[in-house]
Amino acid sequence: EVRLVESGGALVQAGGSLRLSCAASGFIFDYYAIGWFRQAGGNGREGVSCIEISDGTTSYADSSVKGRFTISKDNAKNTVYLQMNGLKLEDTAVYYCAAVAGLCPPYGSGYPRPAEYDYWGQGTQVTVLL
After folding, report:
1. What is the rounded CA–CA span in Å between residue 38 and residue 16?
2. Contact in structure between 5 and 100 (CB atoms under 8 Å)
3. Do 36 and 100 meet the contact criterion of CB atoms below 8 Å apart?
4. Cis peptide before 106, with omega less than 30 degrees from 0?
5. 52: exposed, middle or buried (Cβ count in 10 Å: 0-12, 13-18, 19+)
6. Helix, strand, or coil here: 102?
7. Residue-wise pLDDT tens for the chain (130 aa)?
8. Extended strands (E) in 1-130
């Protein structure tokens, strides 16, 4: 059974930091890419970052998170992390990790689309306070 389990969401003050974790099981970790998405209020899921497990290639959404968020992996633990620094009110959202076989889908206006990913976790809430 494929499982993706997120953790690390919390209440944090603006300017603070959090590290989210995504623990994967039930598939061959090295053959996949893991992405982070977020969903705020009634909006759709927005791609944040992605990492290819085979070689560590990373992708980030432009402007909104680049330079503040860092994605990384620990192959021994089958876990992907999202380090979030300089958190802003607009980062408040439920954060999901998702897995796709092979490479990270490309980032661009409106992409990646959530439908490009094969498996999803249940999400973890990040709330940024003034």
Report:
1. 18
2. no
3. no
4. no
5. buried
6. coil
7. 999 999 999 999 999 999 999 999 999 999 999 999 999 988 999 999 999 999 999 999 877 898 999 999 999 999 999 999 999 999 999 999 999 999 999 887 777 889 999 999 999 999 999 9
8. 3-7, 11-13, 18-25, 32-39, 46-52, 58-60, 69-74, 79-84, 93-101, 119-120, 124-129
CA distance 118 to 130: 36
As given in the structure block, the two tokens for residue 48 are: 């944040």
Per-residue exposure over 16-46, b if at least 16 CB sit within 10 Å of its own CB, e if not: eebebbbbbeebebeebbbbbbbeeeeeebb
Those residues with Cβ within 8 angstroms of residue 120's Cβ, 6 or more apart along the chain or in another chain? 4, 96, 97, 98, 99
Tell me how far apart the alpha carbons of residues 31 and 24 are, in angstroms, rounded to a whole number. 12
What are the structure tokens assigned to 30, written together? 């090295």
Positive/negative CA dihedral, 57, 60, 62, 65: negative
